[in-house]
Write a structure and sequence with these properties.
alpha/beta; eight-stranded parallel beta barrel; three-stranded antiparallel β-sheet; 42% helix; globular
């Protein structure tokens, strides 16, 4: 039921569409993160549709421990449960294995760890993860993997990646089995494999070749944005993306800032997700094409402008910076909601701009101009990790 078609390219950057049983996705695409079936900040499924969200991303582990995937299955699956009719991607729970490092035990069968809610012991392996995702009925299921630390030893990473490769075979077998059953919520569920290897490019490349042989529906690059520098992240992408199937979508997991996304698109990535828009929004930090603003700052007390001039999001068309700051300072939930809505719209619209630039053949110019337009504070954190052409463009314009 899935079909991936590249429409246009500029260098390694590609503009494509991905047809699924729940609708066609235009890529490059940003997936709005609704970990437990809702985006934090009081954003509804109706809101997501209004701001142009193409895919919602939820988490296998979190939905398993609360309210329970069996309950959601009996309710007709996650799409029906959250009243969302476009594609959903479910993360496998593998990242929780990484984040719960102090209370986990990894072995060949899977991982034993404790719930962050009540401390009860949980076992999750490839079969369990795929079963949970099948119960949820998501459009795209992610393979169960281990995300090794970026500072782990080469020996540990190699052993971990070998195990992840074996787990992927088991995930595929379980997925094929469940999709053949008549009582499956979504018998057309797709499976994406995950490339791991920390910052060891030789391990990454070997793993990419190995998982490409399984002819999956898509491929992700995991284990980045977990402590390595931007420069290391881009170097990994430069090395590994060429070894992933070009006729399948490529997903960079958990990334990231607008600059990160632009740089990754330039290296051939299609899919992105990150909690930054909602997490930062809940703290009053909002994105614009000239960097981010902290609306809690006193300078916005009497600022009657929208968050960004010309923005067509529901927030900017109606509310001022001053009013939103007032809500934030007063502790009103509406302030967090408005900031989150704007940020999600910004990310979704940024992806539209990216697609238009690739389609029109103006990608290189658009990319350089957009990166340059980042504000000074953002540049301080990112310019040292940008490719030399960006540093040169910035110097030329100054």
């Amino acid at each position: 039921m899935a079909e991936y078609r590249i429409i246009s390219t500029c260098g390694r950057a590609k503009r494509a569409e991905f047809r699924t049983v729940h609708g066609t996705v235009q890529t490059p695409v940003f997936m709005n993160v609704g970990t437990v079936g809702a985006v934090k900040g009081g954003v509804s499924s109706d809101d997501l549709e209004r701001i142009g969200t193409q895919i919602e991303l939820s988490n296998t582990y979190h939905l398993h421990v609360r309210t329970g995937d069996e309950v959601i299955r009996r309710m007709g699956g996650l799409h029906k449960f959250m009243a969302w009719h476009r594609p959903i991607l479910t993360d496998s729970g593998g990242f929780q294995v990484f984040s719960l490092a102090d209370i986990r035990k990894i072995r060949e069968e899977g991982v034993t760890f404790r719930s962050h809610i009540d401390g009860h012991q949980i076992f999750m392996g490839p079969e369990e993860s795929i079963q949970i995702q099948s119960n949820l009925g998501s459009t795209i299921a992610m393979a169960f993997d281990e995300c090794p630390s970026s500072v782990a030893s080469e020996e540990y990473v190699r052993d971990s990646v070998d195990r992840t490769a074996r787990w992927l075979v088991r995930c595929k077998k379980k997925m094929d089995e469940l999709n053949s059953r008549e009582d499956t919520v979504n018998p057309h569920q797709l499976l994406f494999g995950i490339n791991q290897g920390a910052v060891y490019n030789d391990i990454r490349i070997e793993h990419a070749k190995r998982i490409a042989e399984l002819d999956l529906d898509g491929y992700a690059v995991g284990g980045l944005a977990v402590g390595e520098t931007h420069e290391q992240m881009y170097d990994v992408l430069d090395h590994v993306v060429p070894y992933l199937p070009k006729n399948k979508p490529t997903y960079l997991m958990g990334v990231g800032t607008p600059a990160n996304i632009i740089e990754a698109v330039d290296r051939g990535v299609d899919f992105f997700d990150c909690v930054y828009p909602s997490r930062n929004g809940r703290h009053g930090h909002v994105y614009t094409h000239h960097g981010h603003l902290n609306l809690v700052n006193a300078q916005y007390t009497e600022d009657d402008r929208p968050i960004e001039e010309g923005c067509q999001c529901p927030v900017c068309r109606r509310y001022s910076r001053a009013y939103i700051r007032h809500l934030l300072k007063a502790g009103e939930m509406l302030g967090l909601r408005l900031c989150t809505l704007h940020n999600l719209y910004f990310y979704n619209h940024l992806m539209e701009e990216i697609r238009d630039a690739i389609d029109s053949g103006t990608w290189d110019t658009w990319k350089k101009d957009t990166l340059y337009a980042l504000d000074e504070e953002h540049e301080k954190h990112t310019v040292m990790h940008q490719p030399m052409y960006y540093q040169k463009v910035r110097a030329d314009k100054e």
